[in-house]
Every structure is written in structure tokens, then in C-alpha cells.
Design a protein that fits this description.
five-stranded mixed sheet, 2 helices, 8 strands, single chain, elongated, 2 domains, Ferric Hydroxamate Uptake Protein, Chain A, domain 1, three-stranded antiparallel sheet, about 150 residues, alpha+beta
């Protein structure tokens, strides 16, 4: 009889400990869960600022090269982004003439401009056609740059 009584006491003690642990875990989950929900709501209201840019090279024949998550810096231009792509381990070859406001891309990966009656390398930033030299066009974090071999439109 004493053994049964000891077993009951031991079992009751285990149940009490388990219940206490479950109660503590529930409280912790409630507090932590509220914190996570609060942080998520704050993130939705104020998403983190982007710190990268992307570059797409479109050859106009269904083939593209994409560079995503390129680290952005304050003085970045379309030209410095193109230089970054050239230095990438799977980089591009780029033939450029001039510099700064007079810089012009003549070829990318041996695809040469065709002149006034053909296709040429044209760039856009966030789907907006470039209105000055690529080397003088500043870009911001989160921007998407597209170089496309196409007719000027």
C-alpha cells in the first residue's frame, strides 16, 4: 500500500511539474507571440530601405543576363554598375568610348551597336529611358537597370 501511495505522490508531482512547465511556456508564447505580431505590423508600415540594385542585360533575342542584389553605394551610376558587372566572376565584356557625360557603350559581350539604322544598346532605369550618358546617370538603392539591344523607340 505504501508503494502505491508513493507512486501516486510521484505521479502527482510529475503532473504538477508538467502543468507548471506548460503554463510557463504558454505565458512565454503569449508574450513572445505578441512581440512578433507587433514587430511584423511595424515592418509592414516601415519596410527596410533597399540597399541593392539590379542589372539586366537583354540581347533582344530572348537571351538575358541578370545581376541581382548588387550592393548599392551613394555615388553609384549606371556606369559604375556596368563596371561592377564587368568585374563579376561571371562578368560581361563591355566596349565603351568616352567618359562621364560623353561615355557611350559600343558593344556588350561582342554584340556591337548597328548605328542609326539598326539596333543599339539602350539603357533604362526603372523602365524610364535614359536621357543622358549612362556614366552620368545616378541610381538609387532599389533601382532596376536594363540594358537592351534594340531599336531606339
Amino acid at each position: 500500500m505504501i508503494d502505491i501511495h508513493r507512486q501516486l505522490l510521484f505521479t502527482s508531482s510529475l503532473l504538477l511539474r508538467a502543468t507548471t512547465m506548460v503554463l510557463k511556456a504558454s505565458v512565454a508564447l503569449a508574450v513572445f507571440g505578441a512581440t512578433v505580431i507587433h514587430a511584423t505590423e511595424a515592418d509592414e508600415k516601415h519596410p527596410p530601405e533597399p540597399t541593392v540594385v539590379s542589372l539586366t542585360i537583354d540581347f533582344g533575342d530572348g537571351f538575358q543576363k541578370r545581376y541581382v542584389d548588387i550592393p548599392w553605394h551613394e555615388e553609384m551610376t549606371v556606369g559604375s554598375l556596368l563596371t561592377h558587372a564587368q568585374r563579376h566572376r561571371r562578368g560581361i565584356a563591355c566596349d565603351v568610348r568616352g567618359r562621364d557625360a560623353t561615355a557611350m557603350v559600343l558593344a556588350i559581350d561582342n554584340q556591337k551597336n548597328e548605328g542609326s539604322r539598326g539596333k543599339n544598346w539602350i539603357f533604362r532605369v526603372n523602365d524610364k529611358l535614359g536621357d543622358r550618358s549612362f556614366a552620368a546617370t545616378r541610381i538609387k538603392a532599389g533601382d532596376a537597370v536594363l540594358w537592351k539591344f534594340d531599336d531606339y523607340k
